[in-house]
Design brief:
By secondary structure, this protein is α/β, with parallel strands linked by helices. The chain has two domains: 2-69, no CATH class; 78-233, Glycosidases (TIM Barrel), CATH 3.20.20.80. The chain has six helices and 13 strands. The chain has helices at residues 58-69, 92-104, 134-146, 170-178, 209-222, 271-274; strands spanning 2-5, 10-13, 15-19, 24-29, 38-43, 49-53, 82-84, 109-114, 150-156, 159-160, 192-194, 197-200, 233-235. The strands form five sheets. A four-stranded parallel β-sheet has the order 7-8-9-13. Strand 1 and strand 2 (10-13) form a beta hairpin. Helix 4 packs antiparallel against helix 5 (209-222). The longest helix has 14 residues, at 209-222. It is globular and about 70 Å long. The two termini are 33 Å apart. The relative contact order is 0.10. Residues 245-263 and 278-285 have low confidence and may be disordered.
């Protein structure tokens, strides 16, 4: 908060951090016929830790805040350069064309990215053998590196559940072995539905998640996806799902957005009371 004191002719700043792991809703509104907007923090429970930062300058408030939550890591200079990324580079030819066109136009492209087009069956840590052959992708990434450019692939947190006993997908299997996936209260796996179909989600506080995730990244790099350090497009790192648990395995298939309207997620959401999910209001109006 920044305030100006008309008496002294000086301004001062202070800050407050509400730190909680509880579910929350942050509501911003301007009441009818009011010139003042209000912000309301609704917490469903848990421990509420408040930190007060006295400033008095805005820079000091930010420094005090940083000392509590930790300072951000240093970013590489190329990270601030020009990047190209989108969902829709359907095969490696798109990437090569992007790089060639930028070079021809004299645009200093630092990083070429790929979204989920890269994956085989939309599964993390895989490459499509037809549209992104591993050897060709490795050669492309190495060509970028030789030209002082970089490559970044997407990594979703949602990990595909294997369909049957003949379905081999190591990241999921290793996670089951090491007990790193979020579970229901009864101990069963919490299943959601994301790009590859039905999925599980990492418990980022579990004892073995770091080793499982690191192993998956290393295997991916060994297969040809020689990404630039740890600068990955980490997407949907929270439990982002299109459906709750109790998934119907007979419908296991990659998600299709065309004509699909799912109105009753997440788990325990009552769309008959609150309206289709995604509404801005809780009563469905």
């Amino acid at each position: 908060e920044h305030r100006y004191n008309a008496t002294t002719g000086k301004a001062s700043s202070s800050g407050v951090l509400l730190f909680s792991a509880a579910g929350s809703d942050i509501f911003l509104q301007t009441p009818p016929n009011s010139k003042v907007s209000l912000i309301e923090y609704r917490m469903i429970g848990g421990i509420l830790d408040f930190y007060f930062f006295s400033g008095p300058t805005d820079a000091e408030v930010i420094a005090q805040y940083g000392s509590v939550i930790g300072y951000p890591m240093w970013q590489p200079a190329w990270g601030f350069g020009f990047h190209l990324c989108r969902w829709g580079y359907h095969n490696l030819s798109y990437d090569k064309e992007n790089v060639a066109q930028m070079r021809a136009a004299g645009v200093p492209l630092e990083v070429q990215w790929n979204d989920i087009d890269l994956y085989h069956a939309y599964r993390d840590f895989t490459t499509d053998p037809v549209s992104f052959p591993a050897d060709e992708l490795r050669a492309f990434i190495q060509e970028l590196a030789a030209n002082h450019q970089h490559y970044i692939p997407i990594v979703d947190a949602a990990i595909a559940v294997t369909v049957n006993s003949t379905d081999v997908y190591d990241p999921f299997a290793r996670g089951v072995e090491e007990d790193v996936w979020i579970k229901n209260p009864d101990g069963s796996l919490y299943l959601g539905q994301v790009w590859p179909g039905y999925t599980v989600f990492p418990d980022w506080f579990s004892e073995n998640i770091l080793s499982v995730w690191t192993e998956s990244l290393k295997n991916w790099s060994d297969m040809g996806v020689e990404f630039s350090g740890e600068h990955l497009l980490a997407s949907c790192l929270e439990l982002t799902s299109r459906s709750g648990s109790g998934a119907n395995y007979s419908a296991l298939a990659p998600m299709s957005m065309a004509g699909t309207v799912i109105t009753a997620y997440p788990e325990c959401y009552n769309s008959t009371i609150w309206g289709p999910s995604g509404n801005m209001t809780i009563n469905g109006t």
